Amino acid sequence: MVKTILIVDDSESIREVVHFTLENAGYNVLVGIDGKDALKYFDGKTQIDLLITDLYMPNMDGIELIKSVRANEEYKRIPILFLTTESQREKKLEAKDAGATGWIIKPFVPAKLLSALNKVLR
Amino acid sequence: MDEFRKKFIEEATDLINALESSVLSLENNANDKEIINEVFRIMHSLKGGGAMFGFLAISEFTHNLENIYDEIRTNKKSITKDLLDITFISVDHLRNLIKSDADTNQAVQNKQKELLAKISSYVNEKTEIVTEENTADEQNNNISTYYIVFKPNKDIFDNGTNPLFLLDDIAKLGNSYPVVRAKDVPGIGAIDYTRCYIYWEIFLETSQNESEISDIFMFVEDDCDLSVTKISETNTISDLRFVELLNDADNGVIFEPEEINAIIKSLKKVVEEPQSIQNADDKIKKFSKESEITSIRIATEKIDIYMNLVSELVTALAGLKLSTTRLADPDLIEITENIENITDQIRDNALSITLIPIENTVVRFRRLVRDLSADFNKSIDFQTIGTDTTIDKTLLQIITDPLMHIIRNSIDHGIEYPDQRVKNGKSPIGNITLRAYRSGSNVHIEVEDDGKGLDVERIMSKAKEKNFVSQETPVSKAEAIKVIFHPGFSTVDKITDISGRGVGMDVLKRKMFDVRGDIYVETEKNKGTKITLKVPLTLSIVDGLLVTLRDKLYIIPLTSIARIKDVTYKFLTETSRNVAIIDNKQVPFYMLRDELDIKGDYPEEVKFIMIKYEGKHVGLVFDTIIGEYQAVLKPLGKLYKKHEIISGASILGNGKVALVLDTNKIIQKFSETSNQ
After folding, report:
1. CA pair distance B401, B397, nearest whole angstrom
2. A interface test, pick of B159, B564, B626 with most A CB neighbours within 10 Å
């Protein structure tokens, strides 16, 4: 089955790069512009195999989104990756505590994104 | 990437404007957490995006500014008027940085230095530039053996981790010998399937260093006990005695470090003793190596027979598995698992035998480019990348013609004449690059030229003239490009001279679809065109979804399925003209029981399977879904040759036959009949 990945980021350019890369790699891609927007996909009907989220976003940030997904009975076990930068060590731990599976360091090239993805989704 | 850069510039402009207004309001409400967070977030976005899209000056600059606001956010620093002043100047400076001449403009660069110095006086740490981590692997050819203990925490599944993926990754680093420890697994009644009860000890011989191994576990460092120890500087696992001795020492719980050391030592002794003989041994080895035959030629028929037998084996195994499940005999289960394992390996090996590198074909293209460029008086540099990528031999034959076609078009219509190129500010020598790479279970082959690109506007006006698209609605570039695949778009009228690529693109597309592949076009005026062919690695095995209509079984290739929806039969009968509204979108659909003339009524609940078709979704309605199924394709006899909508058959484990549906052909066929 084609895997579906939800990408959540408030930056349109990052969203597009990720979207483009993932779609080219054969994934089905859903897009959310912030945590609150992304919640609409977690309706129990939509298939989501992986969530990739930014941490800093307006309305609802990445940490809260991760927590809410982990609290959702239907989706609590999906892998979650978050986007972060090298210097954000504490934030990384916070996101892990919230239930994230792993992370992708910005800046990334498509190959790096796909290899991070390969760690959690097969 | 240029498109993305442009996007980023637009976005950065918005962000900088938002930053300015936030800093303005901060001037009046210096302690408003919300606004400080906002400022931090914007800088963070600028930093990440800047680094991503090559605006390194921006990411360098915002990095330190972000740090200051991070400290304010966490109450380690407070806002001063001085800081706000610098931030305002920074906003202006950021605006200059996204201008195109920022890298060369001396004034901007001086300003950057001056501001960075000011900012770093605010932070204690030194200015550092965010850089890509060094990806150049220092390849070390010396193989060492490592001993890894990986004990996942019981709740490791909770954050979406699959420990088996990690074991797979380890296996990829080299020869590995894993030992599973399952002593903590409770009795069947007491198992909580959300807990992980087992742990692993793994012996790995690899040329990679320790950090490569730890890298695999980077996501789970805090969720497991992990130890990686180098136990020897040689490929110890390949020594059969090692495994033997290890098995003898196994106490079922965990190996003691002393035990492992003792085993390694005992191995060494045996190796070291016959030192004097070793030299002679080496000579013999060297001699025998030279005379070793490393490859043999085999008639393709024999390979076909082998492949066929392998598929029979896979089928027979499926039958065995069914019986095993029914009989539930523990011994039998173990044997079956063993056979399954071996069969998987035989199958993979058989597949790899039928794959050949595309280099074999590329040689012909070199000649083609050379001859054609002479014919057209154009000089062209033809580069190939990744030609050692392998692909099924039948598929290679199938895609050779399309590739030839694409290259010919590039030379004929894509690449301009030398004087024209010079006029457009390009080098007089045109470039065509053929790039092949593997992605998942597909091979991508790209042909890229730096010619004039497709004239999208003229394609559109032609398309409107021919009523391929509606006259009123505006059409995006991507949609416009799709028009060239429209049957009849090319052959009618002399479009080739304007589009550069009219000839038979619809034929190419159909050919690719026939082999479950796809074709993509990217183009930019005056920059060039890139055409990508995507083909599956092999034709003989298809990952499919097993579905039913009454008592009949069908397989739909997974690659063509977009989504699956449960609907009621009543819902579908109440639609008009066979178009259902699914999630606010119109989806045309076909009731396959009717179309395939299968008697009887649909059940109340039916499966609405949405198929990707020409960029849209089309629904096919089935009774039920049985599950995913890896089907070994068998050709149908010649009596069935004319049944285009069926691409093959597969024999299931229980002996039943399932037909593999060619969804593109089905939709094509039924849409034709319903239009008449």
Report:
1. 8
2. B159
